[in-house]
Design goal:
This protein is an alpha/beta fold and 312 residues long. 38% of the residues lie in helices and 20% in strands.
Length: 312
């Protein structure tokens, strides 16, 4: 039936060849729309409110839609790349949301062992961007595990809106326990050297700092991206050198930076803090116009060098 309908339907007139629309960059987006997107990303307003408020800015609705992630842009390393081997793994997580976890494990080609790196997602589960970051870490020579905090609820649902809603429903202590157990799993993996680094983005950046305080000497290096600081009282427990990345325009996170730096210094924790000019929160995420290529590359190169130095 379908074939018959298609055969008798009138032909669609050929359209003139047109160049694809340009990809918007952050320079073309009003800061007010960026601020609204930050509210939306952190779950303080929903998608409808984000679009409605953005529409009040001249051209804001088009800017708002442009900011929504396009994960086709996020892939820089194919999952079939010959330099890596990637698979999903299941493991136990006592004390977590359900007692079971699932993650994306990526190893460099070869027999190993390799230094281990945990890659912690944002506040929406294991989306394609974070999976690509895990592949990037494996290409750099690390055994990378990107856990999916939404695994007990069926996993990342395929879109960020639903993922954000699901993650908001989880009990924070249990979700962080799932990340803690994920760190222990990859550190103890047969392909691991036993040296552990942790990196993460947004919620995952804050979780990186939390894990540094919780794991103590069991974590050898951390590289949080625009993450909330560890609770000041827990900073003396941190033993891992920290490389902290900050966006220039990110008032909520940046307000914590000075106190965190003071606490790290007082505790004798080796650390570096870098703020990247002209950037927004999320500048490393190449699926939206918040991405700032030069800053993202520099921050990632620094992260790889940091891990190679401290996980050797």
């Amino acid at each position: 039936m379908t074939a018959s309908i298609r055969a008798t339907a009138p032909a669609t007139p050929k359209q003139p060849d047109m160049a694809p629309p340009p990809v918007l960059t952050q320079d073309w987006i009003d800061q007010r729309v960026f601020d609204l997107y930050d509210e939306y990303c952190h779950g303080r307003i929903d998608r409808r409110a984000f679009l409605e408020r953005a529409a009040l800015v001249a051209g804001g609705l088009a800017m708002a839609y442009a900011l929504l992630p396009n994960y086709a842009r996020a892939q820089t390393i194919s999952f079939t790349d010959e330099r890596i081997k990637a698979r999903y793994v299941a493991y136990k997580s006592p004390g977590g949301t359900s007692g079971d976890m699932r993650g994306y494990l990526v190893q460099p080609s070869g027999t190993g062992p390799f230094p281990a790196v945990l890659v912690v997602h944002e506040n929406r589960g294991l989306n394609p961007y974070i999976e690509d970051v895990a592949r990037r870490a494996a290409v750099a020579g690390f055994l990378a595990l990107a856990p999916d905090g939404l695994a007990p609820l069926g996993g990342y649902p395929g879109n960020d809106d639903d993922g954000r809603d699901l993650q908001a429903k989880l009990e924070q202590p249990k979700l962080r326990t799932d990340m803690l157990n994920s760190a222990k799993f990859v550190k103890a993996h047969a392909l691991s050297t036993g040296k552990l680094g942790v990196t993460g983005f947004c919620w995952g950046g804050g979780t990186t700092n939390f894990l540094a305080a919780t794991l103590g000497a069991d974590m050898q290096a951390g590289a949080p991206f625009y993450g909330a600081a560890a609770a000041t009282a827990t900073v003396p427990q941190i033993k891992a050198p920290l490389l902290c990345h900050y966006a220039e325009t990110d008032p909520g996170i940046n307000a914590q930076q000075a106190e965190f730096a003071t606490a790290l210094k007082a505790a004798g924790v080796a650390h570096e803090m870098h703020t990247y000019p002209g950037t927004q929160h999320g500048f490393h995420n190449n699926s939206t116009p918040r991405y700032q290529e030069a800053a993202a590359k520099l921050a990632w190169d620094r992260t790889v060098a940091w891990f190679k130095k401290h996980l050797a």
